[in-house]
Amino acid sequence: MSLMLYNTIRREKEAFVPIRPGHIGMYVCGVTVYDYCHVGHARVMVMFDVIYRWLMHSGFDVDYVRNFTDVDDKIIKRALERGIAIDVLTNEMIAAFHADADALGCLRPSHEPRATEHMDAMINMIQALVEKGKAYVSDSGDVLYAVREFAEYGKLSGKKIDELESGSRVDVDGSKRDPLDFVLWKMAKAGEPAWASPWGEGRPGWHIECSAMSCGHLGDTFDIHGGGMDLKFPHHENEIAQARAANGGGFARYWLHNGFVNINAEKMSKSLGNFFTIREVTERYHPEVLRMFMLATHYRSPLDFSDAALDESKAALDRLYETAKRCQETGVPAQQSEQLPVRFTAAMDDDFNTPVALAELFDTSRMLNKGLNEGADVSALATQFAGMVALLGIVQQDASVWFQQGDVDEAAIEAQIEARLQARKARDFARADAIRNELSAQGIVLEDGAAGTTWKKI
RNA sequence: GGCAGGGUGGCUCAGUGGCUACGGCGGAGGACUGCAAAUCCUUUAUUCGCGAGUUCGAUUCUCGCCCCUGCCUCCA
What we know:
single chain, about 450 residues, alpha/beta, 4-stranded parallel β-sheet, 4-stranded antiparallel β-sheet, elongated, RNA-binding
C-alpha cells in the first residue's frame, strides 16, 4: 500500500513518489504574525502536524519547513496602533503562536524561518527575475512581477489571466503593465521598516518570501507544499511563477490544501470578523477537543465550527479516554506499536483520511472494552490503540487526570466517596445515594468499577 | 460571469458500480449494578438533493436542474 495524495495542481489523487528515496521536503505556509491565531489557523497546524507524523511513521526522513511572515503592511499598521516596535509585536505573536501550537499537541517543524532573516535570498530571487525579464521596476519604484511573462500562470488555481481580468475585481493600477502583476519589492515610505536593495530601501512583497524560503531550505524542486485553500490563488500561484521563473526548478511537486473552518456555513476569517482565536476556544475546551474536532472531518472538506460540534468532539474523545482509563486501571501495558491495524494504515495512506482512521480507532476501542469486560488478554489491542492515538496526537493526557479537570477539591471528594462506601457496606443506600447526588450537583460523577469507585468532573 | 468543492439517518462525518452504506453524538430496549455511571449487546436511512441517461445493476459514472459554500482583493 502506498501513499496517495490529492494534488491540487492535478486535481486528483496520485501516488506519492519522493524526489529522493526516503526523504521528503515539505513546506507549509505559516502565518503573518500581527495577531493571535484563530481556529482556521489551528486547522492548518493540526492537519499538517498529522501529515508530518504520518510521513515520519511511513519511514520518511521529513524536512518540514513552516514560515513566519514578519514583515507586512498589517504588521506595520498594528505595531503603529499599539505604539510598539515591529519586532516586539512579531516576537510576541510568534511566542503566542508557539504556545497555541504546543497546546494543540503539534510537533515543531524542522525549520521555522522568518522572512526578515532571509532578505538576501529574496533580493537574489528578485534580481534573477529582473535579469530574466520576468520582473520590472514600475513608475512608483516598486519591483513588479510580469505575469504575462510566465506561460503557466494560473495552472495551479485553474485560472486564465484574461478571465481573471474580465472579472474586474482586480485593482486598476496605472503603474502595472498588467493588472495582475504583483509586488516583489515595495519601496518604503518614511518611517517604515526598510532593507537596502538594488532598487532602493524597501521591503519584500508577501509572495516572494515563501518562494525564497522554501527553495532556500528545500531546494529549487521539492516534494510537498501545503497551506489553506485560500492561499491557492493568488499566493501559491505567484510562488510558483516566481520560483520557477527565477531558478528554473520545478518548485513543489505535490500541492496540499486544507479546507476552511466555517461558522454557520460561512468561512471564518479576519475580514468577516467571525473568528474565534485558539486561546478563546481553549479556555472553554481542552485543546485536544479542538484537535479531535479537526480530525473528525477530512482535511479537504469544510468544517463547521460551533459549540455543539465541540461538545460532540468532547463526547467522542471522552469515549476514547474511558478506554484509556480502564487500561490504565487494569495495568494493561500501553506501549505504542509500529504495527497498526490495516484499515487505519490504509485510511491514512489514502490522502490522510482521518475520519476512517478514527472509525478504526473506535472499533479498536470497543474491542478493547469488550476484552476488558471479559477479562481477556487485551495487550495486543492496547498496543495498537496506543499506536493509533499517538499518531493522531490525541488521548495524550493522563486518562484519570483528563476526567478530573477543573476546580475540584479532591480530598473532599475522596472523603465523600469513602463515606458513601461505608454507607453502602452498611446497605444504607439512601445515605449512599444522597452523597452521590450531592457530588453530582457539583458536577462530579461517580463510577463504581471493579477496581473501586472513581470520579470524574463533567 | 469564470473556476473549484459540496448536498448521505435527528445531528455530525466517511465511503463504494452490486454481498448487511464506516465511525462518532443523540434516542430506544436489554445485560451488568442495590440503584446509577461507565462498558457491552440489540436497535435507530427499502436509502444516499431532484430528473433523465449509460449499465444486467448507480448513492457511487454522464447530462440537465435546484440549493449551499469557497476562490477570482488581504486571508490558513
